Amino acid sequence: MAIRIVDRESWTVCDRFAFPITEITFASLVPKRFISSLRRGFRTNPYREAAYDIDSLFRTAGADSVHFLTNMEPLPLEAFKVSIVGEAPEVVAAGSEFQVPLKLQNLGTGIFSSRPPYPVHFTYSWFHILDNIETKSGDENIRTRLPRVVPPQYTLECALTVQAPKEAGTYRLQASLIQEWITRFDAVDPNNAYSAIIEVEDDLVREIGNPVLAIALQNKTAMRAASR
């Protein structure tokens, strides 16, 4: 099959294009910017195409494709349900960056993924404790991506990257999840979080560099743990 370009005034053939097809039912002039879309095909944008494939998979498997939602759409409220446990250090240096091992279990109905357009990430907040009164001192400076997709009832172990406050003191670290541009999981339910009390010290780095002071620091940390 071929298409010929004809000059309307002289009815002479100006050009000829061959196509590996047997029939053409319709032809139309379109802007040049349409070429990339025509080459990709007539299914719409890549995000919607991926969502359509996932929906078809659930329908074929007999699952409820509306109830099992991925991050192609905002998660429903019943999907914001998780269990998070961790092992945060008791003492960190002011302004330092450290990691907290976490274990996440998806107790809801959604599939968690860090892919766009509505990625799910680990997040955290700091709360300064003074005279038994908590004051929020700021949210995270660093987001932590999920290393893999987490379907309902699955667990994930990974490390949360945290930036310590710049001022020394006693703080409570609260780690949770967030679906970007939607909401934090602990805003839906405070139980969707892991918390730990952490001492932030200015001179911690200098103390650790001194072997004698490092032993004293270990003893001080042990005494703090025993008094709780």
In short:
By secondary structure, this protein is α+β, with helices and mostly antiparallel strands. The protein has helices at 35-40, 46-61, 185-188, 204-208, 211-227, and strands at residues 2-6, 13-18, 82-86, 91-93, 97-106, 120-130, 133-139, 144-145, 155-163, 169-179, 183-184, 194-201. The radius of gyration is 28 Å and the shape is elongated.
Strand-helix topology:
Elements: E1 2-6, E2 13-18, H1 35-40, H2 46-61, E3 82-86, E4 91-93, E5 97-106, E6 120-130, E7 133-139, E8 144-145, E9 155-163, E10 169-179, E11 183-184, H3 185-188, E12 194-201, H4 204-208, H5 211-227
Parallel strand pairs: 4-12
Antiparallel strand pairs: 1-2, 3-5, 5-9, 6-7, 6-8, 6-10, 10-11, 10-12
